[in-house]
Write a structure and sequence with these properties.
Order of helices and strands of chain A: HHHHEEHHH
InterPro entries (chains A, B): HTH-GbsR_regulator, WH-like_DNA-bd_sf, WH_DNA-bd_sf
Keywords (chains A, B): DNA-binding, Transcription, Transcription regulation
Number of helices of chain A: 7
Oligomer: homodimer
Distance between the termini of chain A: 38 Å
Helix content of chain A: 55-70%
Shape of chain A: elongated
Strand content of chain A: 5-15%
GO molecular function, one term (chains A, B): DNA binding
Number of domains of chain A: 2
Structural class of chain A: mainly alpha
Strand order of the largest sheet of chain A: 1-2
Protein name (chains A, B): MarR family transcriptional regulator
CATH topology of the largest domain in chain A: Arc Repressor Mutant, subunit A
DNA sequence: GATCCCTTTCGGTCGACACTGAAATCATCG
DNA sequence: CGATGATTTCAGTGTCGACCGAAAGGGATC
């Protein structure tokens, strides 16, 4: 007997969350992200998320705050509604990825400073130089690559 | 009165270690990396590292094992020497960075699987599609960019 | 084989952080 | 203004991992 679609989707959410857990995003935060990417309708209240994801209201609150903060989730309040509605802000993924790329390239400032401290001793600077060149190239190319990123599909 | 060069270098090592600590590398592991990049002579024993970095022999051992494992440090044993010598393997930084880039791009397999699960419901797949396109582009471009990386300076 | 030195292993401590659930807070509506 | 239904805050718990230092393990020399 085959498993239902919703079952497979929740397994997918779990894989999704697990991936980002490795990158330091709390498990529940990852679940919220995954869930909000594929739920119908697109907006959910904190209470609904708590129910759906079987997580405490406290965890949901903390993680929503974090996700709204980094921009991946948008909070919407409406007059006449006591419950705020949350939804994925798919546009924010570009910034999210860009931060990761710049984080990698940022090592270059570190190696650069090191090279300065070792100026006058090229022998000793050799190892760092190899690393510095690599990061120097990266920090030039990554932003350039990023500029060529395609617009999102219509 | 100005601070000495060695003092500044050890401050640099600390900054270096702090950066990689944010990426999940233990502080002491980062210190070893930074130190081995700029020490003279280039090879050190575990005992020397323990002394220089004021870390316990146990921590040095654990972290060296890890660094050797990921290839960033090379262990060399010599007949007639009871102490092994460790040095930076600056060549391995390319692999190290590549792993980070592929880790970012690997989200594409996740979004791709999600899209498959949502095939037949384009409405519901819209949010994921935006994210999937971005990662799809990345996982095509990043490896291509990487191929164009320059050789290390002679 | 005994000794010496160095490295690895291992038990234990400490601090950080995710998560929970209850209490406090807030907003809306009657 | 009080009641209602939602969210946020907060104290407490458990887990995990980095680090330490002592003990065990391994080579090398004598």
């Amino acid at each position: 007997m085959s498993v239902g679609r919703e079952t497979r989707l929740s397994a997918w959410i779990e894989r999704f969350a697990a991936h980002f857990a490795e990158e330091g995003i709390p498990l529940i935060g990852g679940r919220i992200l995954g869930y909000l990417l594929i739920c119908q309708p697109v907006e959910r209240t904190a209470a609904e998320l708590s129910q759906e994801l079987e997580a405490s209201s406290g965890s949901i609150s903390t993680n929503l705050k974090y996700l709204v903060n980094v921009g991946l989730v948008t909070k919407r309040t409406r007059r006449g509604r006591q419950a705020a509605e949350y939804r994925i802000n798919e546009k924010a993924w570009t910034d999210f990825i860009q931060r990761k790329l710049t984080a990698i390239a940022s090592v270059q400032t570190l190696t650069d400073d090191g090279m300065r401290l070792l100026s006058g001793d090229p022998e000793r600077a050799m190892r760092l130089r190899t690393v510095d060149h690599l990061y120097g190239w990266l920090s030039a190319e990554l932003p350039a690559l990023w500029e060529r990123r395609p617009a999102s599909p219509k």
